[in-house]
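USER: If only I could read backbone structure tokens as easily as an amino acid sequence. It would mean a lot if you studied the pair and described how this chain folds. Here is the record:
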Amino acid sequence: MDPTQAALIELILFFIIFPVTFKAMMALDITKGFQKGAVWQIQIIYIFLSIALAYLVSSGLFRLIELSHRLLL
């Protein structure tokens, strides 16, 4: 697989998975660990955790795609 194609696939996977992880993170109630009125800090935590989780999931899925591509060729 050519590096440009691989990077594009991984980027597309990330942008598909990110909204899903963000929506899933919104179902968690992490407000108990914050002070009252710390709305923007809670939003930042949700965004950063969603980015990290989306990166891990997309990297894992891309690795599986890459391995299956190598096995089939």
The mean pLDDT is 91. The radius of gyration is 16 Å. The helical segments are 3-26, 39-72. The chain has one domain: 3-72.
